[in-house]
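I am writing to request your help with a piece of structural work I have in hand. The matter concerns a single protein, recorded as an amino acid sequence and a row of backbone structure tokens. Could you please explain, in whatever detail you think fit, how the structure tokens follow from the sequence? Thank you for your consideration; the sequence and its tokens are set out here:
>
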Amino acid sequence: MYMLIWKQDILLILFALLLPFLYLRRRTAKGKLPPGPKPLPFIGNKLPRKKDWETYTEWGNKYGDIVYAHSYGKPIIILNSYKAAYDLMESRSSIYSDRPHLIVLMELMGFPGTVFQPYSNLWRKHRSLYHKQMNQVAVKNYQPTQMATALDFLKMLLENPKDYVRHIRSIAYGRDLTHRFDQYLDLSDQVSKDFFRAVRPGEFLVESFPILKHVPPWFPGSNFQRWAKKAHDRMQATWNIPFRDVKEQMAKGNVPPSFVANSLVELGRSDESDFEVGAVKSVAGGIFAAGTDTTTAALSWFFLTMALFPDCQVKAQEELDRVTGRNRIPQFSDRPFLPYIDGLVKEVFRWFPVAPSGLSHYTTEDNIYEGYLIPAHSIVLANAWKILHDPEVYPDPMSFKPERFLPDKDGNVPRDPAVSGVFGFGRRICAGRHLAEGSVWIMAASVLSLFNIRPATDSDGKPIDVRYAMEPLPGFFCHPQRFPCVITPRSQDVVQLLNQVQF
């Protein structure tokens, strides 16, 4: 009996192994696929596990703007130009707005967030919640909280400059939820790593052969099942703990504006079994897990660029001094008068995008583009790194030049990185981009108004070369390596100025 079952399992596995290649052969007969690297027999292309954007960029330089690869018969399209990404993900968004169904992420880990929801009514519900609370006008409601967070950050920076990273991650749930904030940060960091592993193409064989999801956790070779169970528990904690803390604070009447608080007040209920409350919870978990990571990554690159390019720091501070007079902290109302600071923030996002290889889109139909067949059910990636380092749009792209975003004599400026891949493309563009960009702007402006950032010095008094930090830490959202720097007040009036500010 057991032998018969075992033979049936083998036949099913063999069939599952052959099916993708039969499918690929049928698709190839419909049209010419884009060029790409030569695949290995049976396995397909060996996909990069580290710094995938560099491999995709090399493929783009060799094969062109549209590159085709496949892993165990699963089609993968890499877009290496803004034109290709816009033409497909924007102009053809109706068939490029789905996400691949990732078995490990969605089924085994039970990921409830918006970012990998299929293009469906539930996704539209999530998206409407985002838009209502985080559109370009609505995010102004968060500016007092962002300013207060910036003030807290400045005070902590004055007391302990080495711990700046952990003080900038309170936007999603509100700055007063500090009693378990270390736990929030630990969960967010770990879930970010889990997410990165789960969404990376080619990481898990079960994504190509779904039958493997039925293999029990005790079976040899099913380590992915045990890992997914632990990741599931961590992810559920990330969604549950902060959400319930906000509800607890709301019951006490002591919670500042936040996505969760605003949404629940508007709904007039907080029962988590309610569909709309559940949607708020799912969206908020995504904001906390992903939004805090993107903001801290961008600010970490800001600190590194200021240490690496002191001339840019000086220019930014000269502009700030002209506007604020060095007797107050900059505010959002100053933004129209600080074009260099605006350019500096844009250049931070462009110079090293926090998600350089982007998130996978998924095609729902066959379509022809530039004479090539883009098959249905293809994973499609926009290589933000190459797009944002296109020398025709951003000359000398590896140099850090905030002034590139100032109007030239004809009033022209290069394309804003916010719409060039930093926050994604099409209907899947990051709904929280206005909040994230505003958070980075007020933090950068506030820090530069009061502090100088310099590289640390060695025992001989020479500046330490911190260019090694440009090699990012592993993870979906790229952070620079930790580097030594010296952060000092620009004047003796900083303490008095910080004590005078109230929000």
User: Anything to note?
Assistant: The chain has one domain: 31-500. The first strand starts at residue 66 and ends at 71. The chain has 16 helices and eight strands. Residues 1-16 have pLDDT under 50 and may be disordered.
